[in-house]
């Protein structure tokens, strides 16, 4: 069993990052805190509207200039994976393997195949937390 199995089936909650449920970023925060001991910033309390999604898209685009994140050429476990939702890069998941991702959608958390066409064409990049880079 993979570390990710413990996170499958968690409930979805918009802007969530608590026991009642998580959104996609809340799930990433939970995994990083529980598995890696890294506390990522919270966006809790902000409405997920078009303005926020556009801001998330801009943050992802600037991540390579960040002190926190390093873009990776290939997918490795615990990389944060970014995906387009419509025209914006505003969905994230956590790599389990080079082919699998743990992510949250409205039905709950699950592991999906990154090579599936529904994910492959929306994939924007893999990112490693610099402190976690070896």
Largest sheet: 6 strands, antiparallel
Helix amount? 10-25%
What CATH architecture do you see? Alpha-Beta Complex
Counting DSSP H or I runs of 4 or more residues, the number of helices is 3
N- to C-terminal distance: 24 Å
Mean pLDDT: 81
CATH class: Alpha Beta
SSE order? EEHHEEEEEHE
Find the CATH superfamily.
Answer: endopeptidase domain like (from Nostoc punctiforme)
The figure for the number of domains is 1
CATH topology: endopeptidase fold (from Nostoc punctiforme)
The neighbouring-strand order within the major sheet is 3-8-4-5-6-7
Secondary-structure class: alpha+beta
> What coarse outline follows from CA principal-axis ratios?
globular
Proportion of strand residues? 25-35%
Give structural attributes.
134 residues, alpha+beta, endopeptidase fold (from Nostoc punctiforme), six-stranded antiparallel beta sheet, two-stranded antiparallel ribbon, globular
Describe the structure.
With 134 residues, this protein is an alpha+beta fold. The chain has a single domain, classed as endopeptidase fold (from Nostoc punctiforme). The chain contains three helices and eight strands. The chain is globular, with a radius of gyration of 14 Å. The two termini are 24 Å apart.
Short description, anyone?
This protein is of the alpha+beta class and 134 residues long. The chain is 22% helix and 31% strand.
Q: How is this fold's topology laid out?
A:
Elements: E1 17-18, E2 21-22, H1 24-36, H2 50-61, E3 69-72, E4 80-85, E5 88-95, E6 100-105, E7 108-113, H3 117-120, E8 123-129
Antiparallel strand pairs: 1-2, 3-8, 4-5, 4-8, 5-6, 6-7
